[in-house]
Amino acid sequence: MEHRIVQSERVAHDGILNAEEHVCSHVQALQRNNYFSGRLLTDRDLRQEQEYHRELRRRHNRCLHGWGVVCGLELSIRHGEITVTPGLALDCQGDEIVSPVPTVLCPPSERPFKGALYVVIHSSEEMIEPVSQIDGATSYARVIEASRFALATQDPISGHVRRREHWEACGETHGVPLGRLRLVRGSWRLDGRYRRRWVK
Fold first, then answer.
1. What pLDDT sits at residue 114?
2. Do 26 and 15 form a contact (C-beta atoms < 8 A)?
3. For residues 78 and 190, what is the distance between their CA atoms, to the nearest angstrom?
């Protein structure tokens, strides 16, 4: 699992919904493989089979649950270190982001621009089990669906549409905010006024 920290993050939402739209207004028809006896299957067919099921799950998550924290991922600060408990979140594309073990982050000592930092979890993929091909190139046999953390100066919730108690998924891949930090008299503290986003 990757635990990378960056000081700033630019969040762009090219396909952001406006107040009159709904996430399901952008649902696309899916294409799946049709199997029959004697058909030759290639790596393209198998990748498409995986992507079909992944997109089914993403669509379910986006339209039925929205985006945000599902469970866990609680923050605490002690001796200048941020601890994030294990947990699960859904991003705006509908991907599940899992952090299976406690994670410790170290915020910077100086005050960032705007004076606040957001603890954000992102989906991440890690290629493992390298395999040498006939032409000498290297491929990988497995992909770990992992997660990474970042300290961002911009809240990923910015620009999203709120309906009742929940925020609409914009359909794009970006991090899920877990909390906001403020530098108070030289020490980072959790901002108790910040409300994290929960799924429906």
1. 65
2. yes
3. 11
CA distances from 73 to 38, 40, 85 (A): 48, 45, 5
Summarised one tens digit per residue, pLDDT across range 45-104 is 999 999 999 999 999 998 888 899 999 999 999 988 999 999 999 999 999 999 999 999
**Mapping DSSP to helix (H, G, I), strand (E, B) and coil, where does residue 71 land?**
strand
Is residue 138 within 8 Å of residue 122, measured between CB atoms? no
Question: Under a CB-based contact definition with an 8 Å cutoff, are residues 81 and 46 in contact?
Answer: no
pLDDT of residue 26: 66
Q: Are 123 and 147 in contact (CB under 8 A)?
A: yes
- Tell me phi and psi for residue 178, to 5 degrees: -110, -20
Which tens digit of pLDDT belongs to each residue from 179-193? 999 988 778 899 999
Residue 96: which H helix or E strand, with range? Answer: strand 96-99
Cα–Cα distance, 94 to 70 (Å, whole number): 12
